[in-house]
Amino acid sequence: QVQLVESGGGLVQAGDSLRLSCAASTRFFTDYSIGWFRQAPGKEREYVAAIIWSGTSKYYKTSVGGRFTISRDNALNTVYLQMNSLKPEDTAVYYCAITPTTGRGLKLRDDYDYWGQGTQVTVSS
User: Fold this and answer.
1) Is the dihedral of CA 67, 43, 92, 72 positive or negative?
2) pLDDT for 40-64, tens place per residue?
3) According to DSSP H, which parts of the chain are helical?
4) Alpha-carbon gap, residue 8 to 79, rounded angstroms
5) Inter-CA distances, 28 with 24, 32, 67, Å
6) In this structure, are residues 88 and 124 in contact, taking their beta carbons and an 8 Å threshold?
């Protein structure tokens, strides 16, 4: 099974920025589409952003689209989530996930085959 290692989370104040990273242990990284999800305490895991295998299309949860940017570096087998102007409601555990299967919408948990263990993002007011 593909291993995903996440980093970059932390405790920040409202208005600050963070960049999350997710490194994948597969030589076929360029064949995978990738998503970011988040889960706050007591709530369901929700979709945040996704990028297709080619990198030519990116998708965002409407409420974060103006502040978050997803990108990938195929040379490093890494996907990033740049988060600017963070708000307390962004507080959650953030997960990356990947799938080699084409034709999926990339907005649902079941669209993905492999998941990381998550990184905590806490935004104080």
Assistant:
1) negative
2) 999 999 999 999 988 889 999 988 8
3) none
4) 12
5) 9, 7, 30
6) yes
